[in-house]
Each structure stands twice: as structure tokens, then as C-alpha cells.
Amino acid sequence: MTTPYLVLARKYRPQRFSDLTGQEHVVRTLVNALKSGRVAHAFLFTGPRGCGKTTSARILARALNCEKGPTPEPCGVCGPCVDIAAGTDVDVQEIDAASNNGVDDVRALREAAKYLPARDRYKIYIVDEVHMLSGPAFNALLKTLEEPPGHIKFLLATTDPQKLPATILSRVQRHNIQLVPLGKIVARLREIAQSEKVAVSDAALSLVGRQAQGSMRDALSLLDQLFSAHDPAAGEITGEEGAETLGALDNSVVREIVAAVLARDAAAAMAGAQKAYDQGADFKRLAEDLAAHARNLVLASLPGVKQDLPDHEVRSLAQEAAEHDSAQLSRVFELLQLAQDEVSKAASPRHAVEVALLRAVYLAPSGSLPELVARVEALAGKEAPRVTRTLQASALRATVKPENEHEHDSEHEDEHEHENRPLDLKGRWRQLIEAVRAARKAGAAAALEHAVPIKIDRTGVQIGFRKGAGQAAIVQDARGALEDAFEKALGFRAPLQIVEQDAAPDASVAQEKQKQRAAASGNRIATAREHPAVRAAVEVLGGEIEDVRDLGEE
Ligand SMILES: [Zn+2]
Hints:
By secondary structure, the chain is α/β, with parallel strands linked by helices. The protein has helices at 7-11, 24-36, 53-65, 79-86, 103-113, 135-146, 166-169, 182-195, 202-212, 216-229, 239-246, 251-262, 266-278, 283-301, 311-322, 326-345, 349-363, 369-380, 410-420, 425-438, 442-448, 471-477, 479-490, 509-530, 532-541, and strands at 42-46, 92-96, 123-128, 152-158, 173-176, 386-392, 395-401, 452-457, 460-466, 496-501. The strands form three sheets. It has a five-stranded parallel beta sheet with strand order 2-3-4-1-5, with helices on one face.
């Protein structure tokens, strides 16, 4: 694998434990073991590809075999140190289990292990991708691991430790090599750029670091690509140049878009999306980057939260976050995070990103909760219901009573209408029923609710019952008392006339009440959901309607 791009990766390959970027926990344990002389005879380095497993194993081999050792600080100049770094030490063998996975290979290894080292302190076997060994090969290796000669050390490495037999796992000291945080990668890249005397902008360093996704080795080969494509006469390597060379999206576009959303500037947000498109952005990746940047802003707005990001990014994030309310930042983060799902499923990821941006521009709150409530009320305008809200856990409970909704309590309604305008037939009929109720004839009043009023005047009070309705008989029986009650309410005496109807009366008080109850119980949430003010509240606050109650019920 000799490409011109491996130059930096070779030149800056870590030679000492202190060079291992981002692996402090592993380094500490190994250094302490070397200092105390309690070094295990078998090690297992696990972790994702490119994060430094075999590099760590090589450094450990030098530490063990250095003429000045075993020492946590190999001298770097003695025979073993030089030969191990060059990969030519006869006593340090590197075996790639992916290509030497047979039992014969391991038997040969066991055979060779019987003999003392030719020159060095230990015979060291570095077995890369050890999970690729065959079953019989594992058994052969296990025999050696069970009774290791004192002059043998096994340094195993794998991306897939769960594929190793428990018998192997129980005989090795395990070290987890982790992906390197972006901040540490960028800091290391900056050091290297300085010692190579190449001017690289912060934006370009961040870009390389992000592309490397935690692998220092990848970061170095990407930096190599930048260096070799760069014309030194052109001065500093900018973020734009870096994006062009590596075919990646310049993170400044991501920052511009999120800034536009926070500024509620739809035009700028759309222009940013266009710019990303022009740069050949993968919109699914863009959606991830947008959410990641919004998250970084949220974290930057919280006191005492440390982020593994390049210093220059931490500074600019803190500045930007300070200009916005935490609630707004969180809401934008939430909307952009949710958008990732939609974008990944969308036939047109670009459009899905644009929709998400517009939603975030128009719906993300721009203030504290009291400000939000004020906004909801302003949005709702003159026809506004009184919207109260309690945020319980994450759910929004909207309690709504549109002012123009009819009261369900007929008593209140009657009084109200009587005061304000002349009663129509239905209103007068309700009044008469109440007069009956006031005369302590509740049963008769309830029966009257099933009748439809036909006319109410000095010639008589005429009402209709459905044919065969039992209520007609009750009313008939109470005729005298009813006429008394009517007289009290009307101011004149009028005879009660009862008419039989074929069809079911569709305008009886009882039926209206029934309809109102159904509407109240069944449709209240649906009705509330349709109300523009409630919709605004739900969208602005990002909640759901959990319950709807009349304020009068409270
Ligand atoms: Zn040495």
C-alpha cells in the first residue's frame, strides 16, 4: 500500500506512548505496568479500524524490547527500537490473521516460540485481526497462551472482540482503543501543519478532522491529500479549498444555514441549501451535520459542558450560542434532529432538508416560555381562545375554551339570552320548561324536554310529541300545573295543546342536549385541534394535545 499520501502517516506515526492521541486511559495502564514490572504476557487491543491498535502494540513491543527497558519511554535509537519501528526486528513478528488463519500457521508459531529470542529480551508476536483465526488455530494459540514460556509476549489486535472465544478473552489483558475526539485530531493536525510549515486555516483543519471520523491515520492521509494538491504560492489552505480537494462539504455552509434558521431568515436558509447543493453536498449527510451543529450550539449554551471540539470551534460556538435563547436552540436542534429521519426516507432529500429548514425558521420559538405564550396569543388574534398551558414532563396540555362556543348549561344560556335579545320560539320554550322546573315539577319539565314547540302565543302553547312517546302522558297528567307555571312566565294564561307527530321531533330540547353532550365528549379534542390558535400553540411549543377541558369545569 504505497501511495504518495502515506507520507505524513508514516512520518508522524506515534513512536511513544505520549504520541498516542486520545488514548490516555490505555497509555496510563501500560505505563504503570511497565514502571512496576508487572507486565502481562498477552494483550488484546480492541477498537474500530484506523484508531491505532497495531500502532499501540508496536509501541508496547519497543517498550518491552528497548535495550534500556523494559521502560515506558523506549530510547528510540537502540537496535530493537530502530528495527521494530522499521518492521525488521527478527524477534518481533507481525502476523495478519486475515491471511494466515490456518492451524498450520499457529503450529509453526508455537514451534518457533520454543526457542529463545535471537537478540531481544522477548519474542513478541503481534497478531492483527486475531478474530479471523480458524477454530483449530485458536485452540493451538490457546495452548501457548495457557503455558506461555517467559520469553514470549502476545500482542493481539481486533476490531471484533465478540468473535473471540471466551477462553482467549480470559487469558489476555484487554485495552480498548477509542476513536479520537475531533478536538484532539484537529490539535494534532495543527501541530503537524506547523512543523511541515504549511499554512492551513482552522476551517480546513476542522474539515479534515470531521472527514477522518475519529481515525488519526485517516486524518493524516487526508491532510497529505490537501498538502499535495495545494499550490504553496496560493498562501493558506482555506476551508473552501479543502472542501474542493477532498470532495467534502465545507462546514461553514452548515454554520450559515443554522445561523439563518436561528435568525428566522428563510431566504438565507434556502440560499445556504442552494450553496450546499452547488458544492455537491449529500443532503442526508447535510441533515446530520445540521443537527450536529445545532446540538453543539445547545451544549455551548449550557454552562460547564465540555465539548471535544477544536478550540476555535468552541470559541465561535460559545459566541453564537450566547446570542440565542436556550429554548430556541433546543427547539431548532429538535426539529433538525427529527428532520434526519424524514430526509433519509425522502425521495428528494434536498426538498426534505428545505422543508425542515422552513419549519425550523417559522416554528422554532424565539424566546422564553412567557414570550412564547405571548406569541401564541398574538398569533391567535382577536378570536383567541384563552390558552393556558402547563408543561408536564414533555407533554403539552392545552386547556381551551373558545369564547364563542355555546355554553352547555341551558340555565346559564337562558338567562344570558333573556337579558340581551328577544327570544325566539326555542328560547321561549326553554324558558317555559325552566318555569315548570322552578315550580318543582321536575318530572314534567324533563318530559317537556322531549317535545318540540310549535307555537307560543295567547291562543295557546302548542307542542308536538313523537307518536306513542310516553312523555306525552306525563305532560297530559300535569296539564293544570303546567298551565299555571306557563302563566307565571308568560304573564298571560294560555291553554296547553299537545299534538302527535309521525316523525321523530328533531328539535326537542332533549335532542339538542344529547347532541351537545356528544359533541362535547367526542369532538372536543378534534374541535380544539382545528382551532388556529391551538394549532399555533401546538406547533410553536412543540407539544401534543393531551386533554381539553372547559375552563368552567375547573
Ligand atoms: Zn531503545
